[in-house]
Amino acid sequence: MRWFRRIAIGAVAVAVLVTIGVLALLVLVDPDSYRKPVADTIKQRYGRTLRIDGDLKLALFPRPGVYVEKLSLSEPHSTQTFAVIDSARVSVALWPLLSRQIVLDHVRVSGLKANIVRNRNGKFNFDDLIATAQNNDLQTAPVPMREATAGAIAAEGTSVQLDVAGMDFTGGELAYRDFATGTSLRFERVAATTGRMAPGVPFAFDASARVLGQSPRLDAAVESQGTMRFDPSGRTVALSNLDFRATGVLPSVRATAFTARGDVAYDVRRSAIAATNVAILFQGDVAGTTPLTGIETRIDAARAAVELGAGRLEVDKLSVTAQGKADSDPFEASLSVPRLSITEQQASGEGMTGRARLTGQPGMDARFSLAGISGTGDRLRLDQFHVNAEFRQGPRVVRVTGESPLEASLKQRTLTLPAMTAQVQIDDPALPAKTLQIPLTGNLRGDLGKQVLAARLDGLVGGDAFSVVADAAQWDAPRISFSMIADTFDFDALWPGARSSAGTTAPGTTASRRPEVDEPVDMSGLQGVTVNGSVKFKSLVARGIKAKDVGANLRIAGGRAELSNLRAALYGGRLNGALFADSNAQRVGASGSLTSVQLQPLLSDLTGTRALAGRGTLNLALAASGKTVDALKRNLEGTVQAQVRDGAIQGVNLAQSLREFRSLAGGARLPGAGDMTAQQDAARRTDFTDMTAHVTFANGLGTVRDFNLKSPLLRVTEGDPARIDVPAGTLDLMLRVNITAALAGQEGKELALLRGLAVPVHVSGPIDQPTTRIRWSQAGSDALRGAISAGADTLRDGATAPAGQGGQGDGAPMEGGSPAREPLRERLKGLFNR
Fold first, then answer.
1. d(CA 80, CA 636)
2. Which of 98, 362, 383, 733 has its CA 20 to 30 A from that of 136?
């Protein structure tokens, strides 16, 4: 038993020495004396200021460690705060201290607040704290014993081994700002607990937080559980049995449920990620121009591995499904990849298929497939990329079939469709031949690493060729350039229903007018994109208008679109103009001129009417602002100047209408007395040599000024009112018609009797179908009486017997006065309101 006594005596001796050492440590060591040396070391090594404004205590039981309160650390070489800790306790294992190793036993942190920043160069504001030792070693002069003790770990080679029995974080707040992407997030109520943490050793974790953001806007609660394993030397992280859950509002998304489960491993140095038994579920709504509601999306994969730098992509049993509603129409989508293996040595697989379907109006059913995989990760080839789609809107059905081989490089992140061929078939009862075939060819090349895309598309519409070339770059804020060239392009052959039917109502009928819905004007598509492009057509047909040598330039930048240098030769004249739409001010406008254009064929092609003939010149500068169509109409402002030479107003003949009134003096029967509606007849027309007008718009109301119409017989000027109500779509225009000359013959003589009389003519009603009324009751009474009196004298003179004949001729007066004049008096009473 001697050996037992020796062991017991040795154990007691060790216990006594440890007790003496502990007592000596408690008595001789003052933790506060290390505040300054530790702060100086941090300042010297990292350029940061460390402050300990609370207690700094040394604890030995139940574990040796340090307890600190109100600790703060500044940004490098700055007074701004990087992190603050309300309280922290760090315990170390006792026995490793005897072998000059510091093993963290337990870490408890409360009230951690930190500001994490990623600069435009991609560096974080904590990179200096995790840099390798060789990048941070500093040559320092000898320091006193206390400072040397504080730096003994680095100076004497004592190692710090991360082997923590457990960590607890409570009450944390983290602010994250990324100047490279503009992201700004805040993490509140951060809490986390872990089991034993050591390199290469799996440990359990449980974390939760509330995430708030302004850019992007979000408010979500997140929770995560699982087992983690990390290797600092190999820079790898692995998560197994991961269970991630999130609910709340994400950018344009309201997630009622988002879960992700599976095993994930990430290699930082190789930028490689591998996952097994992945199951992801999303339920919620997505906002947008077309809101998606009731979405349920599932992603399942038995295995997936991605390492683009090595040209590696492997997938087994990947399935993606989604369903929900777009507006009120149900939709569904799916993607299936049974097996895909792409490595540096070879590529193989069973191909992939996908489908997207939208029911309702409009409807869509699109399918695609990829097959014939060969090559390697650096030079990948798929023999066939096939697309088959059908789009429906009302009676129109558009079917698209296309295919192309596909070439790609995972290492270089490039993609090419070198020989695209497609066939578009449009079936529509409105088409002249009921169906239209459009063959297409082209190619597409993209570099995902450089974020550039280039494409070319050539096609035939009705036998006429066209070509489009486009380039795109920078996915987050797209920059697009394009050009389109065509010899002849007929938009109406593609969209025959686009032509306006205004003015096609039969004469004598009233067009039924449905109440218009105030449609919103959405210009959000102009934000976040830059576009520069041009179009050129030798011949163009659009909305019935035929033009030649058409060209325009389009630019979109900063939320504003400008269509400039718009030019065309049409109907014997020229068009020059510009358009703009500004989403920042919600404003649109147009300016330009039509010069020496033949109006009748232009109006006939555009509206189906022939209301005005002649050669016209138009100058306009108009603008409007508003978020709806009705608001744009109410806020219309600007000017329009027009001149028409050697023309005619079709459908009404003012001179003939005046002669019909004058025929009252001859006893002819008219529909009624007083004001009369000028007869609408396509065969009638008011010819003129010159017509000019100036219209000023303000708040949607146009005021006609300087209206002047000249003809051999008439002079017409504007009266009061002279308004155009754009929101209501109506005219209220009083014209003053003056007889200036007369024709030869009996009709000319009757019209000459009204010379000098200003006859009001009221044009009112819908702009596309106005009514013309001659306001005889508002004509000058004295002048009108004179004209009627002259007509009565003519009637009296004409009642005598013809010269050279005796007795009573056909026009002789009747006994008892002049009974023939009595109907005239009765019919004229209404002219003078008596």
1. 53
2. 98
DSSP E strands in 130-271: the ranges are: 159-161, 166-178, 183-194, 203-215, 217-231, 236-250, 253-267
The two structure tokens encoding residue 60: 């030995």
State the residue for tokens 């497939």: 369
Q: pTM (2 decimals)?
A: 0.68
H helical segments located in 609-697:
629-634, 654-662
Q: Scanning the structure block, which residue is given the tokens 């081994």?
A: 161
Measured distance CA(200)–CA(236) in Å, rounded: 9
Which residue has tokens 């009921």? 434
In whole angstroms, what separates CA 416 from the centre of its chain?
28
Q: Is 412 helix (H, G, I), strand (E, B) or coil?
A: coil
Tens of pLDDT, residues 89-104: 887 766 665 555 656 6
Residues 607-657: tens digit of each pLDDT: 777 788 999 999 999 999 999 999 999 999 999 999 999 998 877 777 676
Q: Is 452:471 a contact under the CB 8 Å cutoff?
A: yes
Question: 440 is written with which tokens?
Answer: 């297409």
Distance between CA 92 and CA 59 in Å, rounded?
10
Determine the Cα–Cα distance for residues 332 and 296; give it in Å rounded to an integer: 10
Give the number of other Cβ atoms within 10 Å of residue 395's Cβ.
10
Q: Of all helices (H) and strands (E), which one includes residue 781?
A: helix 781-798
Q: How far is CA 116 from CA 124, 183, 191, in A?
A: 7, 12, 17
Q: DSSP of 245-265, one letter per residue?
A: EEEEEETTEEEEEEEEEEEEE
Contacts of 729 (CB under 8 A, 6+ apart): 766, 767, 768
Sequence-distant (≥ 6) Cβ neighbours of residue 742 within 8 angstroms: 713, 748, 749, 751, 752, 755
Q: For residue range 27-68, what is the model confidence (pLDDT) as tens digits? A: 445 666 767 888 888 888 888 898 888 888 877 666 677 888
Dist CA 559 CA 582 (whole Å):
6
Residue 511 CA from chain centroid, whole number: 36
Q: How many CB atoms lie within 10 A of CB 197?
A: 21
CA distance 379 to 407: 7
